[in-house]
Design brief:
The structure holds two protein chains of two kinds. By secondary structure, chain A is mainly β. Chain A has a single domain (about 5-110), classed as Immunoglobulins (Immunoglobulin-like). Chain A is built from no helices and eleven strands. In chain A, strands 2, 4, 5, 9, 10 and 11 form a six-stranded mixed beta sheet that branches. In chain A, a hairpin with a 6-residue loop joins strand 4 (about 30-35) and strand 5 (about 45-50). Chain A is globular, with a radius of gyration of 13 Å. Chain A starts with a strand and ends with a strand. By secondary structure, chain B is mostly beta strands. Chain B has a single domain (about 5-100), classed as Sandwich (Immunoglobulin-like), CATH 2.60.40.10. Chain B has no helices and eleven strands. In chain B, the strands form two sheets. In chain B, strands 2, 4, 5, 6, 9, 10 and 11 form a seven-stranded mixed beta sheet that branches. In chain B, about 35% of the residues are buried. Classes of the chains: A mainly beta, B mainly beta. The interface of A and B includes residues 4 and 102 of A.
Chain lengths: ~110, ~120
């Protein structure tokens, strides 16, 4: 089993729709990171959440860290085709970074 | 600022052959990481360097994989001999700070390896 479970695995929506993807674990993390990876490229860091209950906004993206620091969510408002990609959450329960398997998002025009 | 450079971008080899990947991190970044990303999975850390010393190589299959970072700048990752299950994208990342996991890592575009 993965240390970080991401759901859904795949998501295909129309432009303008809202969506939420989740990252869950039974472990506590001092911080969690969200990355977006486009085909043929490496992951790019979107945000780091550090405090339990923290909410961070990045334009149309809203990130939340669970109160118990075991889970996180990413909400996208009015999705656009440019949001298409693989969304990965990552955290380090010890000293090495662990990634979830990701949610592959497709936004159709 | 130039990003993390990796070469080659693609490599196709037959099983039992050897292969090497090269990474040039962002200038001045002390910490360098190699990850393996198998199709449908997230990246898995293989090895982490701080300057030219190894910080963590607990998930590196040392019977066939080796990595070095001479002079604390460029790095090479080698597989010898390759197996079918080594087919994956190999990502290199670098970080400017002390290598704490929460520090921002900048990834290169990766090398896609296919083992036939």
């Amino acid at each position: 089993t993965q240390l970080l479970e991401q759901s859904p695995q795949f998501l295909s929506i129309q432009e303008g729709e809202n969506l939420t993807v989740y990252c869950n674990s039974s472990s506590v993390f001092s911080s969690l990171q969200w990355y977006r990876q486009e085909p043929g490229e490496g992951p790019v860091l979107l945000v780091t959440v550090v405090t339990g209950g923290e909410v961070k906004k990045l334009k149309r993206l809203t990130f939340q860290f669970g109160d118990a620091r075991k889970d996180s969510s990413l909400h996208i408002t009015a999705a656009q085709p440019g949001d298409t990609g693989l969304y990965l959450c990552a955290g380090a329960p010890s000293n090495d970074m662990r990634f979830g398997a990701g949610t592959r998002l497709t936004v159709k025009p | 600022e130039a990003g993390v450079a990796q070469s080659p971008r693609y490599k196709i080899i037959e099983k039992r052959q050897s292969v090497a990947f090269w990474c040039n991190p962002i200038s001045g970044h002390a910490t360098l990481y190699w990850y393996q990303q198998i199709l449908g999975q997230g990246p898995k850390l293989l090895i982490q360097f701080q300057n030219n010393g190894v910080v963590d190589d607990s998930q590196l299959p040392k019977d066939r994989f080796s990595a070095e970072r001479l002079k604390g700048v460029d790095s090479t990752l080698k597989i010898q001999p390759a197996k079918l299950e080594d087919s994956a994208v190999y990502l290199c990342a670098s970080s400017s700070q002390g290598g704490r996991p929460s520090n921002t890592q900048y990834f290169g575009p990766g090398t896609r390896l296919t083992v036939l």
